[in-house]
Amino acid sequence: MKFRSKMIDVGCLNHFTRVVNTIAKLNKTCVLRLTPDNLYFVLSGKVSNGGVSMWCELLQVNFFDEYQIEGVSPDANEICLELAPENISRALKTAQNAKSVKIKLTKKHCPCLTLAADLPSLSSVSRVVTHDIPVDVIPRRMWHDFKEPSMPDFDVSIYLPPLKIMKNVVDRMKNLSNYLVIEANLSGEMNLKIETDLVSVTTHFKDLGNPPWGDDASQSRSRDMEAMAHTRVDIRKLQQFLAGQQVNPSKAMCNIVHKRIVHLILLHEDVSLQYFIPAVA
């Protein structure tokens, strides 16, 4: 089992850093799945137990100048590692001005992802800062838990309003309640609502647009365009998602499975991030 990669382009390094920083804000631990073509950051929470889940996909060729992997076997050319994304985030902070960054799988006192940043130096002697990030290698028999989640059979899909505006709204609502209702319809309308014994607050968004999903478009015509699908969620989980965003997506969408799941999707030209927040009673 071998993995080594190298980044030279500063823009790619900064973009990769923003992605990792976003992942680090969402959870303390996650799984890094490495394949010949892609990297995946995966959080496989059990929605039935109230846990969030996440799937972030990166096309390696858009980030790395060199990338080599030898998986556990020829017929399973991939590696799954459990780690703390915050550790990678901290290591990358020291590498922002690096001439190059190498990341490889090593064996120290335990399995590690070793990140070596070649930093600028005033002398002819190179200055390399190395970080050993502990990881747990996940055995192949457990890989089925870290496959791409299937698209839920949603009732409404809608484009999100600007994430900064949405974050400001949710930050204010969090002071009033622990729970928030997200509702939307097929006419491009979305509402964020909190209701307690003392207060009821609703923020309305209009003209957001509804993504075309191929075959689902014909199904949507048979639905009431004004009917709202809604799901009540833990407001802290939504706030956590919005607070950590550094991906700068070109598209941001929300799929709602009525009273069950809120499925958030961020799309960038070389990154996609899916986040699932289960309903609370």
TrEMBL record:
This is Checkpoint protein. The keyword Nucleus applies. GO terms for biological process: double-strand break repair via homologous recombination; meiotic DNA integrity checkpoint signaling; mitotic DNA replication checkpoint signaling; mitotic intra-S DNA damage checkpoint signaling; nucleotide-excision repair; response to radiation; telomere maintenance. Component of the toroidal 9-1-1 (RAD9-RAD1-HUS1) complex, composed of RAD9A, RAD1 and HUS1. The 9-1-1 complex associates with LIG1, POLB, FEN1, RAD17, HDAC1, RPA1 and RPA2. The 9-1-1 complex associates with the RAD17-RFC complex. HUS1 interacts with POLB, HDAC1, FEN1, PCNA and RAD9B. HUS1 does not interact with RAD17. Interacts with DNAJC7. It comes from the Eukaryota. GO terms for cellular component: checkpoint clamp complex; cytosol; nucleolus; site of double-strand break. The keyword Glycoprotein does not apply. Keywords: Cytoplasm, DNA damage, Nucleus.
